[in-house]
Amino acid sequence: MTGGVTCSVLLNTVLIFLLIFESVTNGMLYPRESESRQIQELDGMWNFRADTSPSRNVGMAEKWFEKQLAKTGPVIPMPVPSSFNDITTDRKLQHFVGWAWYDREFYAASDWENKRVVLRIDSAHYNTIVWVNGQHVMHHEGGHLPFEEMVNPYLKFGQANWVTVAVNNTLTPHTLPPGSIEYMTDKNKYPPGYFVQNFEFDFFNYAGIHRRVRLYTTPKVYINDITITSRFEGSTGYVQYDVKFGGLGNKTYPFVEILDRNGDTVAKGVSLSGTLHIPSVTPWWPYSMSKDSAGYLYTLKVTLKSESGSHDVYRQQFGVRTINVTDSQILINNKPFYCHGAAKHEDSDIRGKGLDFPLIARDFAMLKWLGVNCFRTSHYPYAEEIMDQADAQGIAVIDESPGVGIRSNANFGNKSLEHHLAVMKELVGRDKNRPSVILWSVANEPASNKPMAQHYFKTVISYTKSLDPSRPVTFVSDAEYDNDVAAQYTDVLCINRYYGWYQDTGHLETIPYQLTYDLEQWYKTFKKPLIITEYGADTVPGLHTMPSYVFTEDYQVDFMRQYHAVFDVFRKKYLAGEMVWNFADFMTVQNVKRVVGNKKGVLTRQRQPKAAAHVLRHRYWSLINETHSLNKSLGL
Ligand SMILES: *[C@@H]1O[C@H](CO)[C@@H](O)[C@H](O)[C@H]1NC(C)=O
Ligand SMILES: *[C@@H]1O[C@H](CO)[C@@H](O)[C@H](O)[C@H]1NC(C)=O
Ligand SMILES: *[C@@H]1O[C@H](CO)[C@@H](O)[C@H](O)[C@H]1NC(C)=O
Ligand SMILES: *[C@@H]1O[C@H](CO)[C@@H](O)[C@H](O)[C@H]1NC(C)=O
Ligand SMILES: *[C@@H]1O[C@H](CO)[C@@H](O)[C@H](O)[C@H]1NC(C)=O
Ligand SMILES: *[C@@H]1O[C@H](CO)[C@@H](O)[C@H](O)[C@H]1NC(C)=O
């Protein structure tokens, strides 16, 4: 990443003198237009070529990045953003593992020469190398998180340029999620060089350039990062902010203002960091707890003037709210928050995990229709455009890293740990200012019953807390209360349970016994609030039986009712939430247990309701009404 500049600040008046150090940290502010910033979208049809050579290495060896991809061999059109897997009719491409190559042309305006031009990829899965005009620009490991680099040295201003992106979806024991390549060497059973990608997570390993690709400009001295934390006392909001700038310059003249939802200025400051007061603050609330201030966002408008006279302006949204965790509850703004939610996936027909605005809007419409007040980004960070909606619509988020399927001994080594810490830093850096994020989840269903998980998760969790002391941290466990070695380090217990599905399949009557015992033991052992982060049953839409039978819509309904009865007992004690698995059906690997994907959605993959969705909707809206039996003025 770009060598930015950190500053130790001696501030007194508007004039600030800075000592300049080299730094490796770089902000990851979302690209936003402003008086000083322009954006050029690079989304659309790109040229695409998968390296299907047995070694998958011919493209690298032949340096396909040195010329237009179409000059290296046959290319096909590939939409960006999207996963490449389900676009064509080619089975080989659907299951392709290795380097996939993309390129396209663009123009760089001649008046950009005096600006800083940054190329940002919001996410590509997994290992990505980027060249501009044949010159290496950046390399990033990991899907689901953005990466960027200043590209001025590589650009031809006022002329055509081309960008090449190579993406490798190979998972190794040290990637997140981890996986391994297995070579099938029995010549009587497999073609020469045959290999498969193995991993321990239950969703399709979609790959490609999954989110937006953009160029954006800033002045040469620019706002590099903004960190905001907030709290309130009585009706006064306290907003602590810290602005980091980049570029060479000894003096900056910062000006910050807080704007309310109407755009009116409610506070001002003239330093790079400090605490501003908002009189009569409107806190951020989940929509299930407040109508008028649901998703209430303020804007910190930062204007940075440098001694050379250039101005940079950036507007960062934030909310004023607190999160506290007691031994039995999660409090938002000092009021108990009961999470009635759903786990999700970024998944849809044809485009896979590719960013899709209609799908985002539809998902939020269905989340609200269901009465969901909280979702988990299972099992990887979601697109920033999704997180924006959670902030603005007042839906709480458990923000999860791509740490899923950490199960074999090889996944717990120092190399894996180091990468996991780097990923947490990227995730916290990206989402730290989001009021919707109430809890970080560092992993899903790791082998937290293995002794080696103790050091590993102690390290990841304490590191995450050091990155963000303002939020609680957890991981999601499928181990048992008496063998989990990592749950002790969490602030909130999150556990996944499938009584009546994976265990005692079809035996609905066992659910209350097993679930009750389990909840009691977890609480007795750890004395922390507890969320059931998954429970669910596969359901083929349209299948009905009476009495209910596994895989029918009727079974999903009966199954959920058993869980809900137990939840109703414990939510008055230390159960802080329930989250159905899953919001919608989603694709998985081909497997005799999965009929074209995982069917545990209460919605189909097309986001239409199954019978259970109506049960859930009635329950969740009753809970919202109960929360506000309260306040007729809510009129929910
Ligand atoms: C790219 O993919 C190939 C094929 O799976 C694999 O052998 C290679 O190690 C991968 N390289 C990187 C840097 O991920
Ligand atoms: C920073 O200040 C020093 C001393 O005042 C000066 O010599 C130097 O040229 C300045 N650097 C820049 C980039 O303005
Ligand atoms: C709740 O958390 C906020 C920070 O989010 C902190 O300032 C406050 O002291 C906490 N309150 C309690 C009662 O712990
Ligand atoms: C991992 O690192 C720690 C400390 O940095 C060291 O004590 C330990 O031996 C290392 N473990 C392995 C498996 O290399
Ligand atoms: C919630 O309250 C509203 C307004 O009082 C009412 O119309 C609705 O039926 C209630 N929903 C449930 C599920 O109780
Ligand atoms: C009900 O709403 C009013 C106006 O928004 C507010 O002043 C009051 O505190 C609310 N009452 C409860 C119990 O939330």
TrEMBL record:
Plays an important role in the degradation of dermatan and keratan sulfates. Its EC number is 3.2.1.31. Homotetramer. Residues 1-27 form the signal peptide. Residues 39-219 form the Glycosyl hydrolases family 2 sugar binding domain. Belongs to the glycosyl hydrolase 2 family. This is Beta-glucuronidase. It is found in: Lysosome. GO terms for molecular function: beta-glucuronidase activity; carbohydrate binding. GO terms for biological process: carbohydrate metabolic process; glucuronoside catabolic process. It comes from the Eukaryota. Residues 221-321 form the Glycoside hydrolase family 2 immunoglobulin-like beta-sandwich domain. InterPro entries: Beta-gal/glucu_dom_sf, Galactose-bd-like_sf, GH, Glyco_hydro_2, Glyco_hydro_2_AS, Glyco_hydro_2_cat, Glyco_hydro_2_N, Ig-like_fold. It holds the Pfam family Glyco_hydro_2. Its main location: other. Keywords: Glycoprotein, Glycosidase, Hydrolase, Lysosome, Signal. The lineage of its organism: Eukaryota, Metazoa, Spiralia, Lophotrochozoa, Annelida. The keyword Cytoplasm does not apply. One of its GO terms (cellular component) is lysosome.
